[in-house]
Amino acid sequence: MQFFLEVLIGGLLAGVMYSLVALGFVLIYKASGVFNFAQGAMVFFAALTFVGLQEKFGLPFGVTLALSLAAMVVLGVLTERIVLRPLVNQPQITLFMATIGLTFFIEGLAQLIWGTEVRRLDLGIQDEPIEALMERFNILVSRFDVAAALVAGVLVAVLAVFFNKTRIGRALRAVADDHQAAMAVGIPLKQIWAIVWSVAGFVALVAGLLWGARNGVQFALTFVALKALPVLILGGFESILGAIVGGLIIGASEKLAEVYLGPMIGGGIEGWFAYIMALLFLLVRPEGLFGEKHIDRV
To answer: What does pTM read for this prediction?
Structure first.
């Protein structure tokens, strides 16, 4: 039972970090209807920029964080102005293809500026078991995983309050529901989109720091976004709550599958089990647990 709890808790904590990456997709999709395939590249760019600034200039953590955040806000605003704004009212596939091209551009730009070698990112949180849990419950839980989950959870809660309680958040939801109606009542569509992309850049920075500290700052960080896809499919592309629940389900299920099904099926099940779950879920509820069900009348 103790081993099962260790695996389950580890999976849930990893799932919170998956939710953080998925949140970047949700923010942009809610406000503009664009599936931003470049979110993974933004995570990579953010982490590499943070480490690059630290290595090159030796700046304190707080200053480096502020400069990295400024860089992500600028990247988000420029993306909205140069890529999204000229493609307003174009077919969704056109916008999606634009974000794919943006992915390769951001990846190349990051490596052009800061280099291609793998870097270590130290946030000052040790990846070691929490002694109190070991002594009292004999359960191994990583201190880093708990800290990362707490940071991700606080960020998700703040964004949820921002969307539901603030004036700008209500404007964002109005834009998501109907662009034309939002403009008709005086909501500045272009400014709202710029804010959304800036917030998505901030989310990418937090995700990049946490995942970069976990796996190292390297090109493989861009693939973290692919693990967010099953999270979005389960939770729904338009729901912040769905991103959280979907991440927890994916994180826990893939860890349990690796431990209990892996010996029977073979190794590496953790890498593809989430996609099998998402495929099966699409057959049952394609809009996700918290997504809006669309009914087309003919």
So the answer is: 0.87
For the stretch 20-67, pLDDT in tens is: 888 888 888 877 777 888 888 999 999 999 999 988 888 888 999 999
Can you list the domains of the chain with their CATH numbers?
Answer: 2-284 (1.10.3470)
Percentage above 70 pLDDT, the chain = 92
Distance CA 199, CA 205 (A): 10
